[in-house]
């Protein structure tokens, strides 16, 4: 082959061009793995845009430009972006393998429905040309659909797929996100927590084997020791009361206004700012964020047995020690961030109806607070609501076996194992702001 012709043809190529080269593998004098060409390179597809320089060569002033670039440009120039997506694939595959090996059946449930149920959140609403007189909603969780399958006779089911919540964007939230949920009959809360420990250990093992050399993680909780053995368990009420040095009022009292005022008094005593809409669930959530979640930094930790008012789809019981109505529920926190939620499912249609009504009471109270102070209307726009799904209540009348349910945000799981601090970094095409951005503008 004429070397002069070879160099001349190579000079016609630009960085980013897709080419075909025939030859054999060899190493250069410096030891770099290369191809020793025996034919002139063929241009398959030219790159007509200025190809971005590699990350290690990039001046500081160009880093923001890369953040603003389309995702395919980031993938071309930043190896870590592509490796994060590969790691995401490993984690999702690990979830499937773990559950499939335990005889779970993977299913698909509706994304569009008449009611957005299964969680407390504000849904996206739309219409279909076939049913212009009906309001449709994108699902906020697949939970009630999956439990209908348990009602129909399946014993172990799971689904990995998208859900949608019409709420804000921040470092850990995106309106479109991926969840993994599974449901299994005759399974207790302790069983669910043990499965969670085994699952996290398995995922850690798979990620370590496939990505240790190519993807550096920065979170200290990712050591092997952190995922071995049982995780600490913090009971919600006793741990919170111990941290406060105070007893909580009876949270299941029918006099919800007195309970709300008693919780506000605790905030006053501790000089804590009230949430914008201080309903009972929001007050308890705020106390948990201040006093409980920071205790889940050093290693994976379960917060267990939440007040009934925080868990409307969970079984509940009157605790003989705290004398509070508690749920058979646990949340897993790692590095102070919620990773998974699990509970024994409420299977009484009568109790479930009461819990739907209880949530409606809290929503009505939030609206009442806004009516008294219009400056809080923006908070009401983001207020979490749980719609009463009457068809689900009717389905429960067929008899739901004792069932354990489990769910996790896949995106947060990927953030954990890749050391990313922003959810947009682990989504294939970034967050909603990125995918809806008009070319050339913000």
From TrEMBL:
Residues of the Aminoacyl-transfer RNA synthetases class-II family profile domain? 88-434
Q: Which keywords describe this protein according to UniProt? A: Aminoacyl-tRNA synthetase, ATP-binding, Ligase, Nucleotide-binding
Which GO molecular function terms does the record list?
ATP binding; lysine-tRNA ligase activity; tRNA binding
Q: Do you know which InterPro entries this protein is assigned to?
A: Aa-tRNA-synt_II, aa-tRNA-synth_II, aa-tRNA-synth_II/BPL/LPL, Lys-tRNA-synth_II_C, NA-bd_OB-fold
Gene Ontology cellular-component annotations: mitochondrion
Q: Which PROSITE patterns does this one have?
A: AA_TRNA_LIGASE_II
* An individual GO BP term: mitochondrial lysyl-tRNA aminoacylation
According to UniProt, the name of this protein is Putative lysyl-trna synthetase
